[in-house]
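Closing statement on the flavin mononucleotide sub-project.
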Amino acid sequence: MTTTLATPLTLPCGAILPNRICKSAMTEGIADSYDHATDKHINLYRTWSNGGAGLQISGNIMVDYRYLERPGNVVVQDKTGFEQLQDWAAAATEFGNHFWAQISHPGRQCARISSGQPLSPSDVQLKMLATFAQPRAMTEEDIQDVIQRYINTAVIVKEAGFTGVQIHGAHGYLISQFLSPVTNQRKDQWGGTLENRARFLLTIVKKVRQALGASFPIGVKLNSADFQKGGFTLTESAQVAKWLSDEKIDVLEISGGTYEQIKLLGHTGEQSDIENPEVDKDVRESTKQREAYFLEYAKTIQDVIDIPLMVTGGFRARDGMQEALANNELDMIGIARPLCFDPDVPKKLISGEMDNAQQYAPKLWSGAFGPASKNKIFRMVNIFGDVAWYYHQILKLSENKALNPKIGLLRSFFSHFYREYKIGITRKWVQRKRSNH
Ligand SMILES: Cc1cc2nc3c(=O)[nH]c(=O)nc-3n(C[C@H](O)[C@H](O)[C@H](O)COP(=O)(O)O)c2cc1C
């Protein structure tokens, strides 16, 4: 029988996803100053649940309140805020879909306002707009502590009613930093060979499985490559995918890139000329038409794994999605940005009411001022302004307010940083007051 967007998917753990569309993770930035979920999460995720995706994945949920990807992240490290977490999970599953928590640690991609000294496998700083501080190389004790935190967070979200977890191993966050030779220059059992660099991820996966049991869904988001010179390659990604398949994880989501190379959103930055030429020269026309950034890469991975594969990034055309499913190139389609404007995209694609999830999109500057500009400032304004524009729409959805697609790039950029700074400062003040009691 041909697989379509409407076909349910039985996972290795036995759970069943009602269809083949996943609302991929999008960080929300709407937690309160105690890092707890709020009514905004409830509004947002109830709306998305009604939108028809068989699986929704939360934005980054942090395992340690000291290190945030951005102010406004939800942190789950103990039972404070547990009721809000329960309410969030209930609203997000209201229409019968799965809702998984994306569990994450930013490592060096930690907002400076949350930590002046983040952690990373090695002390390699991310130099972008001075927003990220010099990281400290993790000690063995730090590594064991963070592993324990992933398990702890996974156990709490399961208790709160999330129906699965996704371990974030992509996009240059901590696990991805361990995988990459650029950020992992360790000489111990956590660095060097691929086996050593993957040890952190695989240890977390094994221990989370032990803690959650055989019948609870566990996913991993992994880069097909970092698209950076000397970084994590497609060949390495396929090997790590094979190891994850041996661990019988339930869904492997493939994406790519880091903050320095925003390939996940389709941008090619300054180092785009060194992106996996072995694959890029061979991109088939039909794939281009489908627009999916990582589908061709995912084929290399699909060949070596025996677990459901999801690919995220650029999927818009219904025909392309159906074709990829029918050809067994993947098992799930991940979609993110189009759901910032039309939360009902999944059900419209499944029913055939919509042929193309063509999104509104922020108008980027072009040419010498565009995202591929030689000038770092222009590059950053385009790339961060682009993402900030989506944050803005997510905020509107979470407040049940009308969307604002007309907001320009520069205004998105500045209003985002102003808001982030404001909530970052308020959070610091509240937390200092709390720790004084
Ligand atoms: C506003 C925004 C926030 C995002 N936050 C996350 C996140 O928290 N975790 C994650 O793994 N990916 C995150 N992503 C990446 C998306 O999950 C997805 O990989 C990317 O947007 C490509 O899919 P799309 O072309 O369908 O938008 C984010 C993307 C956007 C636009």
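Residues 270-283 have pLDDT under 50 and may be disordered. With this model delivered, the sub-project is considered complete and its resources will be redirected to Aim 3.
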